[in-house]
Amino acid sequence: MIVPDDKDWTWVLRRPCPECGFDASSCIAQTVPGLLRANAESWRQLLERGAIRPGRRVDTAWSSLEYACHVRDVYARYADRIEAMLNEEDPLYPNWDQDASAVAERYEEQDPETVVGKLTVNAEALAGRLERISAAEWERPGRRSDGASFTVNSISRYMIHDPIHHVWDVDHLPL
Question: Whole-angstrom Cα distance, residue 57 to residue 68?
Answer without folding.
Answer: 15
